[in-house]
Amino acid sequence: xxxxxxxxxxxQSSHGKRGxxxxxxxxxxxxxxxxxxxxxxxxxxxxxxxxxGTGSTANHFINLLGESKLxxxxxxxxxxxxxxxxxxxxxxxxxxxxxxxxxxxIDGADEANDALELIKGGGAALTREKIVAAASETFxxxxxESKAVSTLGSFPLPVEVIPMAERVVMKALKALGGxxxxxxxxxxxxRNIIIDVHDFMxxxxxxxxxxxxxxxxxxxxxxxxHRGADILLLSGQNGVVTKTA
Length: 245
Ligand code: 5RP
Hints:
Layout: E1 2-3, E2 10-12, E3 18-20, H1 25-40, E4 49-52, H2 56-67, E5 74-77, H3 80-88, E6 102-107, E7 111-112, E8 118-119, H4 126-134, E9 136-144, E10 157-161, H5 166-175, E11 179-182, E12 193-198, H6 205-213, E13 218-221, E14 223-224, E15 231-236, E16 239-244
Parallel strand pairs: 4-5, 4-6, 6-9, 9-15
Antiparallel strand pairs: 1-16, 2-3, 7-8, 8-14, 10-12, 10-13, 11-12, 15-16
The structure holds ribulose-5-phosphate (5RP).
Ribulose-5-phosphate binds next to α2 and α4.
């Protein structure tokens, strides 16, 4: 583990005085997004293409990338929302099908273990996230310390499912030992539904990822175990630590 440098956030008190207070989760997300930019910057070249994830931490990264003077060729986004945010910053967004390889993929996570296996999909973008991660040379995962766990599964595992397969997949997920619940009012960018599997402690993430993918009607599940992160940047009250598997 390597500390990138403690950063104390001086927060504004209600009387206008600044004092040392603990950093909020949002401040930790900004801090780790900045650490990711600092991490990739020395390696990025004018012809580099970057994969960009989805969620509030990824949004902070997009904002910092937009404000930066970093020279690169373009990005591939893991969701329509991130693509729009990138375009709003004037950043080129490419189709993955037009790109040979992505140098880095920068994205958040809902949970991360010590092996850098992840649960993702809290923002319902898991399938495109997994595709972009698979196409990337280095997956830099950015998260605040609340996402670090010893065993994956406290966060309900998102599964993207073809709508007509809802009942059949729910039954199969119950048989695997979880408590599946359809995420109400959510349709993915691929026009599918999300089923979140609750009460499902995952002792063997790779085996569970494979088992869920075997269920007919499942498009993808939010376990990133076969292709986990290469680097995890984790922000906490004492700074950002870098973890490698
Ligand atoms: C979206 C994701 C996000 O990376 C994950 O939900 C973390 O989000 P946030 O950065 O808002 O905490 O997987 O599908």
